[in-house]
Design brief:
Layout lengths: L1 H8 L3 H7 L1 H8 L22 H5 L3 E5 L1 H11 L1 H20 L6 E7 L9 E10 L2 H69 L5 H36 L5 E5 L13 H11 L1 H21 L5 E10 L4 E9 L9 H66 L5 H33 L10
Parallel strand pairs: 1-4
Antiparallel strand pairs: 2-3, 3-5, 5-6
């Protein structure tokens, strides 16, 4: 019976060819992308940061902030993450434009009636009429890619800012080490010379012990400054994406910061006009509008079905055809339209919120910048030159017996405090300038 069914179905070959034409066309249609380019799924696939890349010990040697920024932009995982999301959105775009697949059906009726094999048939159903909505879906996906492009600009700006800020922190940490080493060296020299004063009876044992304690404190402060420098170096290497790297020296000078003063109104206008964060939100509004257009577009899909069947009882070949139109009675897509409308207005509110946030953050940052700039200038040009000269003269006067131990101790405390304040003002100035010149974007390693 099996051979008989197959042989008799051959009589319907011309009709079957027409009925199966959509299936054949779909199989022979060109693929929208090269599947061979996709990564192979393996049981040993490794997720996360590339261990080999992370373990590579980059030696940056004597370098500049600009060179470090360029290195980070070439391989930072935060940028690669956005690139992966952009590739995913390209897949969404491709999928949104694909026509629905045809459906192949087999049916059998009256099998065994009057001892016959019954009636057997094959049909193909294809949906039509959705091309317009598919184009709208692709447009929404394309707008999402535009927003992701701005997201990439945000991440790139954060990376540049974070590298620059971390590099300045390392430079200032290095200056702290140099300053603490200088203080420790002076303290040790004073202690060594004070031994002669004790032998000559010009210095009490109590003052000498206090002088020794100051030397120990200076040495401890030097160790603390070196540890802070090591931490700053590791933080910079982490921001670079090279945690096992090494840096001999950064050639930029943090004391060159604060040349030409920034104009408050011009800087704020520049941030609001060129901020990639604002541009991304504007692109998201356009994308939400495209989604709303897609959801609002009327659904005009209909299906066409055609097939052939063979009745073994009377050896009859039959053809069938049908058209199906969905009745939009209960589901008129009203829920998706409401959601898309709310998301569109929410995107507008988010833009307004972010603009206010930038204004508030700018006001705070610019106030820090103005104070730090004036403070750093005053220390650099007025306070530190006179204090260095005063401290050196005090050291000589103490050793020659012109001033007592209390006076030299007070001079040293003033010099140390002023030097620490100067370096802290430099650090605040560097951080505020980086934020103001970098559209207030920072922390590329945060989520």
């Amino acid at each position: 019976m099996k051979l008989q069914i197959v042989s008799r179905l051959r009589l319907a070959t011309p009709a079957l060819t027409l009925a199966l034409a959509p299936v054949v066309w779909a199989q022979n249609a060109p693929s929208p992308f090269d599947e061979s380019a996709l990564p192979a799924a393996t049981a040993n696939a490794t997720l996360g940061f590339d261990d080999k890349a992370a373990a590579q010990a980059f030696d940056f040697g004597r370098t500049t902030i600009a060179a470090l920024q360029e290195f980070a932009l070439q391989r930072h995982p935060a940028l690669q993450l956005v690139d992966d999301l952009t590739d995913a959105e390209r897949g969404v775009y491709v999928q949104a434009g694909l026509a629905p697949n045809p459906t192949l059906r087999y049916g059998g009726e009256e099998i065994g009636a009057d001892g016959s094999a019954g009636k057997h048939g094959v049909s193909v159903e294809q949906e039509f009429g959705g091309a317009a909505r598919r184009r709208l879906a692709q447009e929404a996906s394309r707008k999402a890619s535009v927003a992701l492009n701005w997201e990439r600009q945000i991440v790139a700006t954060k990376i540049r800012n974070d590298v620059r800020a971390a590099a300045y922190r390392l430079l200032i940490a290095q200056k702290r080490v140099e300053f603490r080493q200088q203080i420790a060296s002076v303290s040790q020299a004073a202690e060594d010379q004070a031994r002669n004063l004790i032998a000559a009876g010009s210095l009490s044992q109590l003052n000498f012990i206090q002088l020794q304690n100051q030397t120990r404190e200076a040495n401890l402060a030097t160790v603390k400054a070196k540890n802070a420098k090591t931490a700053a170096q590791k933080a910079l290497l982490a921001v670079l994406g090279a945690p096992n790297g090494s840096i001999e020296a950064i050639l930029d000078d943090p004391e060159e910061l604060g040349g030409k003063p920034l104009d408050e109104n011009a800087t704020l206008d520049d941030i609001l006009e060129r901020s990639p964060e604002i541009e991304r939100l504007k692109a998201q509004i356009v994308q939400r509008q495209a989604v709303l257009n897609y959801e609002r577009a009327p659904k005009r899909e209909f299906s066409v079905e055609g097939g052939v069947s063979y009745a073994f009882g009377d050896s009859t070949t039959l053809a069938s055809a049908g058209v199906g139109v969905p009745l939009r009675i209960n589901d008129r897509n009203q829920g998706n339209i409401q959601r898309a409308t709310a998301e569109y207005f929410a995107a507008q509110r988010e833009l307004e919120r972010t603009q206010l946030k930038l204004r508030a953050e700018f006001a705070e940052t610019f106030a820090v910048y103005k104070s730090a700039r004036e403070e750093a200038r005053t220390y650099r040009e007025e306070i530190m030159p006179s204090l260095e000269n005063f401290f050196e003269m005090s050291q000589q006067a103490f050793l020659s017996g012109e001033i007592d131990f209390l006076e030299i101790s007070q001079a040293r405390v003033v010099y140390i405090e002023s030097s620490v304040n100067y370096l802290e003002s430099l650090e605040r100035l560097a951080e505020s300038i980086v934020k103001l010149e970098g559209a207030l974007l920072e922390r590329c390693l945060d989520e």
